[in-house]
Design a protein that fits this description.
Blueprint lengths: L12 E7 L2 E6 L9 E5 L4 E4 L5 H15 L5 E3 L19 E3 L2 H10 L1 H8 L1 H17 L3 H20 L7
Parallel strand pairs: 4-5, 5-6
Antiparallel strand pairs: 1-2, 2-3, 3-4
Helix pairs in contact: 3-4, 4-5
């Protein structure tokens, strides 16, 4: 199927139309999505599936959904408790209904406990970023370099959202 790159430019993901009104949002290497998501045009309402890990990526996803359908996102479905699928929830309007199972909702705060700990002590994250950068400088294996680069991107993404992160 056709890629909708001309529809929306995002450093966090690319859109692929699966069928009429259904789009996959595929995480881009180096972006701040860290998982995949989706958009479904229900005809009179708009549904988004998973909100990525960061508000920046989720904001682009919300904008893409609104551009595609011409209306605000009605529903946001969260597939499971891993934070890379819901950490961006706060980028959606308060009117957007967030739907998940009771069990997943109960697990979400624990799944993000490490983020809350880092928010209270950001120096640990700063140290981890510095140590990873130092490892990258001396690493010669290309696969390891790619992994370290992705880790740095993810940690700097967390660093950016810590001051304003909220569980929604």
């Amino acid at each position: 199927m056709e890629k909708k790159q001309d529809l929306l430019k995002s450093e966090h993901f690319t859109l692929e139309q699966l069928v009429d009104g259904v789009y996959a949002a595929i995480a881009s290497p180096g972006g701040k999505a860290f998982s995949n998501g989706g958009i479904v045009d229900l005809g009179d309402q708009t549904l988004v599936f998973d909100a990525f890990e960061t508000p920046a990526a989720a904001g682009d996803l919300r904008s893409a959904a609104e551009q595609l359908t011409g209306r605000p996102v009605t529903y946001l479905i969260i597939s499971h408790c891993h934070a890379d699928h819901w950490g961006g929830n706060q980028a959606f309007a308060p009117e957007t209904a967030i739907i998940t199972t009771h069990a997943i909702r109960q697990e979400m705060p624990d799944a993000m406990g490490w983020m809350i700990d880092l928010k209270e002590n950001p120096s640990e994250l700063e140290q981890a970023i510095q140590e990873t950068r130092e490892r990258l400088e001396t690493e010669i294996d290309e696969r390891q370099r790619a992994s370290l680069t992705a880790s740095i991107a993810r940690m700097t993404g967390w660093q950016e959202i810590l001051p304003t992160f909220e569980l929604r």
